[in-house]
Specification:
234 residues, 15% strand, Undecaprenyl pyrophosphate synthetase, globular, alpha/beta, six-stranded parallel sheet, 42% helix, single chain
């Protein structure tokens, strides 16, 4: 990774867990467990190479439509991960969350708060775990908050800028992701960071998330370095 520019913020859609399990004749939950292990490995690698922010799509607002057995297994996996997150703290990794608290069980919310509090002084990588997250839902909530500010006379419609909207998203002050990675052969955002990803570089691959390795991330970063980011200019 010498002489390579490391993106400050990388976002990943962790896709393909179910297909990974199906290929091996395993229940979908086995794919999610392996995917969680991959996430931990990639997060630690990001911390090692100097990435400042890593945002991962763990559970979308649409994922509640999945079979109850699978949803329950995912929620229990979150519980186990959050209880184990103290190991990230030891590695100077901060843990934060994107998404709505609606529908999440109180004990999960307590574990999320504890994980945030325990890692508040970490100065290495900051991991944003998107749980019960939807990009449109995030923008809708931001618009509602801004509308209330206008209604109360705190700001005027003319004062609303792109920065104003960004301030009311789930992670104000965090730079937009320079690169969004989606493994598993799918080529869409699936309602992930649709405001923040306006100028992100996309990197797709056929690799299923549980098989994703640091070497794949190295390749994505290498490709990122070979792109010309003009942001609408010449």
């Amino acid at each position: 990774m010498n002489n390579i520019k490391i993106p400050q913020h990388i976002a990943i859609i962790m896709d393909g867990n179910g297909r990974w399990a199906k290929k091996r004749g395993l229940p979908r939950s086995a794919g999610h467990i392996k995917g969680c292990q991959t996430f931990k490995q990639i997060a630690r690698y990001c911390n090692k190479i100097g990435v400042k922010y890593l945002t991962v799509y763990a559970f979308s607002t649409e994922n509640w439509r999945r079979p109850k057995e699978e949803v329950d297994a995912l929620m229990n996996l979150f519980r186990d991960y959050l209880k184990d997150s103290k190991n990230f703290v030891k590695e100077n990794i901060a843990l934060r969350f994107l998404g709505s608290n609606d529908h999440l069980d109180p004990d999960i919310l307590d574990l999320m708060q504890t994980a945030q509090d325990d890692s508040k002084n970490a100065t290495g990588l900051t991991v944003y775990l998107a749980i019960n997250y939807g990009g449109r839902d995030e923008i809708k909530n931001a618009v509602k908050q801004i509308a209330n500010k206008v209604k109360s006379g705190e700001i005027s419609p003319e004062e609303i800028t792109e920065d104003t909207i960004s301030e009311y998203l789930y992670a104000p002050g965090v730079p937009d992701p320079e690169m969004i990675i989606r493994p598993s052969g799918e080529y869409r955002l699936s309602n992930f960071l649709i405001w923040q990803g306006a100028y992100s570089e996309f990197w797709y691959s056929d690799i299923l998330w549980p098989d994703f390795k640091p070497s794949h991330l190295d390749k994505a970063i290498e490709d990122f370095n070979n792109r010309n980011r003009r942001f609408g200019g010449v």
